[in-house]
Amino acid sequence: MARTTETPPPQPTPSSPWRARLAAALDSDLFYSFKRSKLVVAAAVLALGIVGAAFLAPLVAPHNPHDLATLDLINANIPPAWESQGDHRFLLGTDDQGRDIFSTILYGTRSSLLIGISSVLLATLLGVSLGLWAGYAGGRIDSFVMRLADVQLTFPAILTALLIDGVALAIFRNYRLEGGKFWILVVAIGLAYWVQYARTVRGVTLVERDKEYVQAARLIGLRPAKIMFQHILPNVLSPVLVIATINLALAIITEATLSFLGVGLPPTEPSLGTMIQVGNKYLFSGSWWMVAFPGLTLALLALAVNLLGDWLRDALNPKLR
Amino acid sequence: MLTRVIFRSLATAAAIMLATAAADARALKWARTADALTLDPHAQNEGPTHNLMHQIYEPLLIRDAAGKIIPTLAVSWKITTDPKVWEFKLRQGVKFHNGNPFNADDVVFSLKRAQQPTSDMKGLLTSIEDVIKVDDHTVHVKTKGPNPLLPNSLTNLFMMDREWSEANNTITVQDYKGKKDNFAVRNANGTGPYTVVSRQQDIETVLKRNEAYWGKAEVPLGISDIIYTAVKADPTRVAALLAGNVDFVQDLPVQDIERVEKAAGLKVNFGPENRTIFFGMDVSSPELKTSNIKGKNPFADKRVRQAINMSIDREGIKRAVMRGQSVPAGVIAPPFVNGYTKALDALPKVDIAKAKDLLKDAGYPDGFQITLHCPNDRYINDEGICQASASMLAKIGIKVNLVAQPRGPHFTLIQKTPPETEFYMVGWGVPTYDSQYIFSFLYHTRGGSEGSWNATRYSNADLDAAIKSLSSEIDIAKRNATIARIWSVVHGETIYIPLHHQMLAYGMKKDLDIPVSPENTVFMKFVK
Hints:
The structure holds two protein chains of two kinds. By secondary structure, chain A is mainly alpha-helical. Chain A has one domain: MetI-like fold (Orthogonal Bundle), CATH 1.10.3720.10. Chain A contains 14 helices and no strands. By secondary structure, chain B is an alpha+beta fold. In chain B, the strands form four sheets. In chain B, strands 1, 8, 9, 10, 11, 12, 13, 16 and 17 form a nine-stranded mixed sheet that branches. At the A-B interface, loops of A face helix 6, helix 9, helix 11 and strand 15 of B.
């Protein structure tokens, strides 16, 4: 009965919810601190530019370096277009196989980003779940998960990734690996970086689990999984977001390192790391463009993502406000 | 004060004198792409492995830098009145590094050891029936039929000490592809000019001059210590040479030759290698595991193999990938080899349209997918060649999934029975300078001591019989006719896709002069 007498909440006009939300976002502290720092704005623009160009690679790139049939050795080792030996078709020159460096950077960045993002998602999923579980359940589970994390922390992440990659390749050696290598890399890098999430989330969960809202949820008989993911998780998300952003740069660099070491993506589908590895071979012979441009792209991308991560960390830290 | 100055100058003078006295104590830092796979002298028939072994162990006879056979542990050899028996007179007064004398027992032991099933050298010794000690310094090698070319097969057959092998339980050859180990894999006791001081596989091997070497009076033996390092990355190896951290780089990357030639204090020696680089294919399995075509094997169709052969632009590879340092090849025999002819080596004409037609006729109008296995640390720009070939094959619709890896795992894929690769790169050097060596390792049906590097599954009983007959034919003209006949059969079948004969470039300090041998084998004892 009460329901009929209740006046409905003021319904905003159809176009306004997102507008209102945008306005709220633009008015928020977060956006204010974003706007205030020119460096962060520049980093965001740079990151967006690289990410955009990479994901639009099939539209933007003048060539498709993954289509082997279009490569021709006649076009190998051409310097950038502005050099005297340059060719206007190849803005940043070509590599030893006749691939256009500019197009290959776009496609390679796309591979690097896809692997980076996927592996960060995997690491987040794994780390957050284990961290929540350990923190909420406590006792033996907590000890087990955290000791596991401690043991893994004693190895550098790149070693863990190399190990997983090597084992996976040995297992799948006799199978056809077309898209397979991509997922092996994602799993290898993802498993190498879950620890930080688990430790952070566990810490916050330990604080949250004895708070009244959690006790209340427990009292009304909710299942632990529901309490963990619906009640506690939203309260631990901001540190996770910060770690994820910083880890994205790390994951991209790890992928490049693995590719540089020759265990990453196949040489016919080069990522940034593979390009740097190949280019490195030709440094002494004067073909600087093969390594300089992919190296620069990787450095800029990692720098931009790192700056954004640092800013996010400070902006979300209540003590620094 | 004055006394101190005098004392100091005396000390300096003494130091200078000491330094001059030790002038012949010259250490040589030697860098190469890859390390020896093992120290067991009979476990791997492979270039870099033999090359390191030649400093430590010695065969009865060797090929010098000019390709001439010269005496080493044997002083002379001849066919006895029985055409099936070779007599080797052994050098007297030779001692192994542990002091044991070298004698006929060791020769009998070593030749028999190298015929064991796990030996990778057994393919060279198929003609041998028995090895008999006549006296301490005479050995008779009895062959199944007359084999006038036996000495050619012994240039990489190292002599081990029987007592040492027995004492250390290394009578059996290491099973390399079975990933087994034995004492001789890490330790060595040869008669050679250098002894092993320390060895870390794939990192560094330190050798010291054998002061009791039998040939001290005959060879310069100018290098007192050898530090052999495996440096896989091309730029690192070149940087080490440019910076003076190494004295000798045996495989100078082709793209850096110009730079090293221009550098002060460095020079480059060139020469052709007795080695051809090529692709092999599984030509007889009913189905390929790594292909998308099921129920049949595209490589079993000769038209497919011909299509591949005419889609590879060998001149393009020479120009862009090899920077001119290769001789495009139409046959897998290098020009040094008996049986090689210019006609066989004629390059297939690059013809994409015709290759596509051939594929269409064979029933693959849209091509197919296949995994290509390549080494990335064995031949000059091996991975680059494979990549370039992958894009050439893509032009006729064959989608190559390229797997490039270090040569240890790569060669294991080929040597395993059944082989674990269906499309692969190999480079074959021919130390015997005779086609038989190519036939019996690469074309003979795999089994027993034959066909150990033949991963093509090619099997032709007539041909096998003809190959076998080569080891006992004494009439050279008749033998050469058989060789020509075998070549015409296998060449017509296009079992392998030849790419090029490899050229070598050694980079070194100006005061060294290490000649390029067609075997790509360096004998440090000849270096002044």
